[in-house]
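Shipment paperwork, digital attachment
Item: protein structure file
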Amino acid sequence: MENNEELLLTKDGLEKLENELHHLRTVKRKDIAARIKEAISYGDITDNSEYEDAKNEQAFIEGRIITLEKLLRRARLLEKSEDADGYIALGSVVKLKENNKGQNYEYTIVSTAEADPTEKKISNESPVGKALMGRSVGEVIEVKVPAGKMSYKIEDIK
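Attachment content:
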């Protein structure tokens, strides 16, 4: 994804990124500053592992803040009217049936920034997400995944 490319986000995804940024700026920065101050109070910082750990965490937090700020500058909220009725688009909740084993799955199609497999949110740029975009109920898709070739029937779209 290009750095200046527009990033479409669902309302939930946008709120999640904004909340994370707010938490990092208001809570985590203060926590890490307190840890650094305490580590410095122990004296010599050259062999102070608490100080090193705190500085490393501070660098991670600042890097994440910069990343989130860049994402949010490019973000545009996905409007419901942009969904093509009956076709899979960003924000669609899709019910699939795996053809070989008959197992059912339900995924929400989201942008890469929102993807979280533990919450059944898959990226529109993932192999399955790409194959689903623009498809409709009843269609069968075949997807090449690390485990091999998988075949799914689209059962429902919300």
